[in-house]
Design goal:
This protein is mostly helical and about 210 residues long. The longest helix is centred in the N-terminal third of the chain and has 17 residues. About 50% of the residues lie in helices and about 10% in strands.
């Protein structure tokens, strides 16, 4: 910025770039006029993923309910979501693998927990926002085919995720992973493709090395 003779700037950043923007603002506040931070996950001190996802979901539901073009059913989107989860808890849906999909199995059981996971992952991607109300209503109404298509696309997107790269970034940008005492064992965790992924304890051990 100094080399370009830029005295101050407006920043609009998303995802991991939020960390960089906040670091810039903290170290060189005079260089930043204003910032727009667009991230599902807040920076440190970092709450649990479940807390962040719940807050993001509630905020999205409230915003969607305020726009009739987003969702206009009685009771709002949160109620439809809860009803869909309750229905799936009673009667999980069996989804068939769409043609051409990279799903490893011919069938996939959409449980209430899996449905919650699908919605959480859709909320991570801004271009998927219009799909969220549809997915909730599909789950509530038992529409297997469109649910299978969305779930398969999330799985294929997960195949491009580099766990090693993600862990390296966490080691660099999360101070509590460096030089910390080894915490208690993690609960088993998986990425979007169902592969094991490092939890806090594992990441602390890796970063310490």
């Amino acid at each position: 910025m100094r080399g370009s003779s830029v005295s101050a700037s407006w920043l609009a950043v998303a995802a991991l770039a939020v960390v960089f923007a906040m670091t810039l603002a903290a170290l060189h506040p005079a260089t930043v006029r204003s910032m727009v931070l667009d991230s599902m996950y807040p920076p440190d001190p970092r709450p649990s993923r479940a807390t962040s996802v719940t807050a993001a979901r509630r905020a999205f539901f409230a915003l969607c309910d305020s726009d009739p073009s987003c969702f206009a059913a009685p009771g709002g989107l949160a109620r439809a979501y809860d009803e869909a989860k309750a229905q799936l808890a009673r009667n999980p849906l069996t989804l068939a693998r769409p043609p051409g999909s990279k799903w490893p199995n011919e069938r996939f059981i959409l449980t209430a927990a899996a449905f919650e996971f699908v919605v959480a992952n859709l909320l991570y991607y801004r271009n998927a926002y219009p799909t969220v109300p549809l997915v909730i209503m599909w789950a509530k109404n038992g529409a297997r085919e469109p649910l299978a298509s969305v779930t398969a696309k999330l799985y294929e997107a997960a195949l491009t995720r580099q766990v090693a790269t993600t862990t390296a970034v966490e080691c660099r940008d999360r101070p509590h992973f460096r030089g910390a005492k080894t915490p208690a064992p993690d609960a088993p965790r998986q990425d979007r493709a169902g592969r094991p992924t490092p939890g806090r304890r594992t990441a602390t051990i890796i970063c310490a090395r």
